[in-house]
Amino acid sequence: MKLRPNYLYNAFNKCSTHSPHCCCRTLGVALLFCYLSVIWLSFVVPNTLTSVQLYVSPRFSVTNFSHNHYAYVFLMAGCNPNKATQYIGYVYNILISKLILQQSGSKADVVVLTRMSAEATAEAIPEQGLLERAGVVVKYLPKVHTDNFFSAMLDKFRVLSMVEYNRVIFMDSDVTPFCNLDYMFESSVGSDAILSPNVVLSYRHEPAQGGFFMVEPKKGDYEKILEIIDYQMLNFHNFSEEYGWGHKILPPDGWNSYRYYNQTQWNFYGAFADQGLLYHWVKYEKSDVTFIRYKELQQWREVDPKSDSSALLLGPIPVSEIPEPRRNKTIGYVKKTIDKLPTCGGDKLKLKRGYQVNEHSPCRDYHHWTGKSKPWLQYQRPKNMKRYLNSISDHSQIKHKAVWWYYWLNQVKEKYDIDIDIERFNTARPNLGTKLTISYMHNYMNKYNQIRGSMPKEDKKERFDTLVRL
């Protein structure tokens, strides 16, 4: 059967020049043609999705919203093809994440920033083809001299150089979304935006989660944050819990976590690394951020104390005392409820996820496999996995987190025809470890000062090149 797109057009032309009886007869034939075409298409056009269907929130709308200017970005560091079992679990988790996002309706790019191990002789991972076949964009970062957990944490901020995107959601490679998180992008654009361009989530004891955040990359941002890192490396052998990454917090200002409120010391976990730098960047450098804590949205921004009475003003605060004093800003925040923030269906899952997850977006819509809880580690894999998988009829009813992850690994295996033995699948401990300690920072700092020692402080290009490759 040959489709003729101009058939309807010709039919309506006849209606304009013939009698009403002829018009009705011609339109009737045209409508019958359309009906038969739909039936024909339903048989010959294959359904490219698997049988798994994900919940899409009816509150989510993509009107006038261009997804190709937005991206989910993962980071894999310390990759060595000779020790593939150390990173292959992250590859599979990214494939799972891509499949879930795709099947639940996301059109945003999925990008993985890949950093090869310093000891690796290969320039690329052999799984690159598989990732690209799944639609994941693979980008390689320069090899580094200090190949440890701390340098990997700093590499997260390379997302600030991705100015081809209007928004980027960064996720650690051990984070798995449950559904389409595009509502985070959409909720941050327009005159009625609920969220700021930068969004940071609080955690148990920390005001900022380094494993999941959203930023707005702008030209010059990456170079600016390199200046902050450079000054820190050159001038502070021990991290200052008073000044942090360049700002002394004074009351009534203070940071908030799930358990703590109005704290002024930079003494939370990761303050000397990604989580402290992230908090400093969005609040004191950009001064345009939404912090999410339980039901509360705190929108911080620079305000005019003479005209903006809607914000709780915190007085003139030097945005950065280090490396040099900047003009005083008045920053303030507006409290809003989180109830207006949509969900993409994570609340429909029956997973037992623990203390750190509440019933609010976006925490309920993804899971972070922190530390040794990663399901691809041997001691986290449930026994008799095939029996579990064969008994599952509805993935949303799964209660065991690791079983849920292996269910989706099985979906990836079938979709991309990957040779994985689900029952015996095993990975080694990650090359860079699973916990951040301040000794990693000292190792990085010592190497940095060793290389930087002979360079003039005024030579910014050389300093930045050193940071990029350190």
Summarize the SSE layout with pairings.
Elements: H1 7-17, H2 20-44, E1 70-79, H3 88-103, E2 109-116, H4 128-133, E3 136-141, H5 149-155, E4 167-172, E5 175-177, H6 182-186, E6 199-201, E7 212-215, H7 221-235, H8 274-285, E8 288-293, E9 296-302, E10 312-318, E11 328-337, E12 366-368, H9 385-390, H10 401-416, H11 438-452, H12 460-469
Parallel strand pairs: 1-2, 1-4, 2-3, 6-8
Antiparallel strand pairs: 4-7, 5-12, 6-7, 8-9, 9-11, 10-11
Explain this structure:
By secondary structure, the chain is α/β, with parallel strands linked by helices. Helices cover 31% and strands 16% of the residues. Helix 3 (88-103) links the parallel strand 1 (70-79) and strand 2 (109-116). Helix 7 crosses helix 12 (460-469). The chain is globular, with a radius of gyration of 26 Å.
Task: Jot down its keywords.
16% strand, alpha/beta, two-stranded antiparallel ribbon, ten-stranded mixed sheet, 31% helix, 470 residues, disordered N terminus
Question: What can be said about this structure in brief?
Answer:
The protein has 470 residues and is of the alpha/beta class. The chain has twelve helices and twelve strands.
Question: What is the spatial order of strands in the main beta sheet?
Answer: 3-2-1-4-7-6-8-9-11-10
CA radius of gyration is 26 Å
- N-to-C CA distance: 63 Å
What does the main sheet amount to? Answer: 10 strands, mixed
Strand content: 15-25%
- What does the average pLDDT come to? 80
SSE sequence, one letter per element: HHEHEHEHEEHEEHHEEEEEHHHH
Helix content: 25-40%
Structural class: alpha/beta
